[in-house]
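Sync notes, pocket subgroup
Present: LS, DG
LS reminded everyone that the earlier model was apo-only. Rerun requested with flavin-adenine dinucleotide included. Inputs:
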Amino acid sequence: MKSYFLQVKEVIQETPDTITIQFWHPINEQVKYKAGQFITITVPDKDKKKIKRSYSMCSSPSFDTAVAVSVKRVKDGIVSNYLNDHVKIGDFLEVVEPMGTFFFEPSETPTDRNVVLVGAGSGITPLMSIAKTALKSEPNTKVFLLYGNKDEENIIFNKQLRQLCDTYPERFEIVHVLSKANDNWLGLKGRISQASATMVFKDWGVDFQKDLFYMCGPEGLMQEVNKTLELFNTPSENIHSEKFHATSILDELNEAEASELKIQIVKVIYDGETHDIEVAPHQTILEAALEKDIDLPYSCQAGMCTACMGKCTSGKVLMDEEDGLTESEIKEGYILTCVAHPMSEGVVLEIE
Ligand SMILES: Cc1cc2nc3c(=O)[nH]c(=O)nc-3n(C[C@H](O)[C@H](O)[C@H](O)COP(=O)(O)OP(=O)(O)OC[C@H]3O[C@@H](n4cnc5c(N)ncnc54)[C@H](O)[C@@H]3O)c2cc1C
Ligand code: FES
């Protein structure tokens, strides 16, 4: 994986708990990315260990001069709070090259399909990049955004979104949904649900067979919107989704299964070396390796980028998230260490 040291060009306070960090491209080189992809930023933790987290670009690869990410504070979160508290103009941050399969590529030929975006909170970041890219590069495409937040103060990019509506009054529509709206709020209230998504999509005149759907937000939001898309038989190749945080599959085990969980020793063969890694119940194999300073490859830590892929040649492994792998990779025994839990003795992994 290629790394850059990118210099901070600007830091913008978007909402009380979210900043946008704009970076200069390196001298003599452009950071190449697709609308919707993410970079992975490395920062030191309190023990000066390097710690990485992924952030989607909110900038458009084709139209914005700076590469930009927006970072929302997570309660007690190490990197999101470090970036919000410490980053300033002129700093250099270590960044792993853009990656990710959640992206929009403008059509090279005229198209009459539209782009439907659904997000909540910081999930707006890749959607913002996609919205700007689609509106500017496809003159006939309409972009629709259904966006959930707590209240008006916490709507990330509120001003820029309004400006995009003014620039493209015929081609960009937004519906905001607020879960803790004040009494003056006249828009939709609550969380985005199957019912509200269906109502809004129909209102927009969405074509469920032809339009492209991009969703980014918590698991619950995707499940609700997916119910609508399933109901209207939207082709799966037109549905794109990204989660920022994988939920643990171990939380779904019944009491008897959960009581069986125990420490497992996983043999990992990587870079000509063999490591016996002790993985505690509820830890992922990657977490256990990093805790012991074993430098396995990784980037997003959410099952989205495949940077941590390995082949399980023996034993049983359960994954929180399988979307990053193809069906044939799963059949061949490939796993993602960042979301994988050993479920038997004798797990052996080979990482290329
Ligand atoms: C592909 C990808 C793209 C992303 N893009 C963005 C982005 O554009 N903007 C952005 O702000 N974040 C984004 N994230 C999330 C980001 O990578 C970090 O996970 C987030 O900033 C929290 O990191 P932290 O070190 O502050 O928290 P940690 O120290 O890792 O976690 C602290 C606690 O919060 C929980 N937690 C961690 N992340 C979340 C979350 N997202 N929601 C709820 N609970 C959480 C953890 O389980 C833990 O209990 C993205 C993640 C992925 C995988
Ligand atoms: S680190 Fe990205 S899929 Fe595991």
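DG: The two ends are 13 Å apart (CA to CA).
LS: The chain is about 20% helix and 30% strand.
Action: DG to write up.
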